[in-house]
Amino acid sequence: MSSFLEGIPKECVGLQGLGVKYVEFSCIHPTLGKLYLPFEKFYDPAQVLVWMQERPMVPLWACFLYVVLILVGRAVMSTRPAWSWRRTLAVWNFSLSLFSWIGAFRTAPQLYYNLTSYTLRSNLCDDPAALYGSGSTGLWVQLFILSKFPELIDTFFIVIHKKPLIFLHWYHHITVLLYCWHSYVTTSPSGLFFVVMNYSVHAVMYGYYFLMAMKLRPKWFNPMVVTFMQLSQMFIGVGVTIVAFYYYSHPIEGQACHIRKENNVAAFLMYGSYFYLFAQFFVARYYRVTVKGEAKKKQKKV
Fold first, then answer.
1. N or C: which end of the chain has fewer CB within 10 A?
2. Does residue 34 form part of some domain?
3. Could you read off the pLDDT of 93-145 as tens digits, one per residue?
4. Number of domains in the chain
5. pTM of the entire predicted model
């Protein structure tokens, strides 16, 4: 990808701490750049990235502690009445929704630019530090990875409110955290696709949860939309991993492909399992409820 700097003004080319040159998105798009804060522009992710690469046990310990706290919390709450932290939950969901909206608006334009400027192979094979992992976009990719730790707090509200804790919930939180960490420290080229999709889905999902917590959900909004968006994300995720594996399996001489086989296989298994579990959830929540509702109506008529 040696030609990606051609035609780019010198003032828009940055050099991050690991010696990789990149294009600062906010600089080559000055209109959008006016919406960026100074600390976002030309952000250097190298220091945090190296720190993460040197500490592979951090996500494992976080997941272990997560499981332990779930077990302890459920045991403690089993003999106590459910708490009522509706307002706190609303603030939490609103915060995550706002964060996700900002993240989506910061990363989606970069993905669009990359897809319209470079080949799909480049987007799935070239060094992500140059493609999207540095500068303002790199900041929001890094924040996305780190956000998987505070997102574990979602489960805290389920436990204290004594709501059903389904397998999909905790399995999703654990595997996403582990996969995102691994993808980031191994510099996975396809990461931006997943970041944009997840930011976008979470922006809507947590916004919906906020309205539910405040009892303000508009009647016209069908919650099925949220699950459909989640299913679409998983379907596209599987597709991206398949295409990436094809490029990995069919290298072009003289063009390096930064895809890591173990990371790509993990992504395929993860997104595939998510698609199955979310489809199962979709059917159980909406289709079966509809069938039961219709059956009750028929019984009343009889």
1. C
2. no
3. 999 999 999 999 999 999 999 999 999 999 999 999 999 999 999 999 999 99
4. 1
5. 0.91
Closest CA relative to residue 52, chosen from 230, 189, 223, 180:
180
Domain assignment of residue 24, yes or no: no
Give the separation between CA 161 and CA 209, rounded to whole angstroms: 15
Q: Can you tell me which residue has the tokens 């595939």?
A: 272
Domain assignment present for residue 206? The answer is yes
Q: What's the confidence (pLDDT) of residue 284?
A: 84
Please identify every residue annotated as catalytic: 172
